């Protein structure tokens, strides 16, 4: 659970941390959309180089970003294996009964695994460089036009802020409950899958009780402070775009342009990479 980057903030005071949170949210959305247009290994290399540049600019250790992939490692491997056995394209490398492994299937599985891992690492940068309060303020500002059609934007932002703040607390609470159950003799980390699932029940039930108790206490605290989500509420920090956001936008625009020109600029490099691995397979 410590490897889940969503909701965790890594303060370094870098220039990326000081960017407008609205710009970082837009950049993250652009990154998520753009990565689905990558079609070559050279394109994935450009994405990896882009993430490395952002890591160095934000002063966040690369290993912390890579660790965020551990949370979805099973999903990534499962997706890759499924694509290897069910994607039928290219030269056949192995065939037995109804099982067929082709060069195109391996190629597609590798690209799918790269896409998922880079997608998770890229989106984790938003959480590492933006506090939950900044993130909710940015989302509320971006969704402000929806107020004209009676969408409770402020309530949605408040719910997101509370949810993000609960994640680290719930992780700490889970660790305490697991250590307490182990001290009582519970075998949580041993046995098969069914035994481990049953062993998690003494952890999940107290965790749900604790989460409900925290939510009830938070509701009482908001009510005691006469909190109400009105349009007249002001903000202590007003979000403003600066020249640094413009420079970051130009940097992201160059990255997006490279990816969309992937088929024209990088197809030659990708062809050499595929021929190299084809030769190894032969």
- Tell me, briefly, the overall form: globular
Spatial strand arrangement across the major sheet:
1-2
The number of domains = 2
How many strand units?
2
Largest sheet: 2 strands, antiparallel
How far apart the termini lie comes to: 42 Å
Number of helices: 12
Commentary on this structure:
This protein has 282 residues and is mainly alpha-helical. It folds into 2 domains: 1-152 and 237-282, no CATH class; 166-228. The chain is 67% helix and 3% strand. The chain has 12 helices and 2 strands, in the order ααααββαααααααα. The protein has helices spanning 21-34, 41-58, 62-67, 73-86, 103-129, 132-142, 153-183, 193-199, 201-224, 243-260, 262-265, 267-281, and strands at residues 92-96, 99-102. The protein has a two-stranded antiparallel sheet. Strand 1 and strand 2 form a beta hairpin. The model has no long low-confidence stretch (mean pLDDT 79).
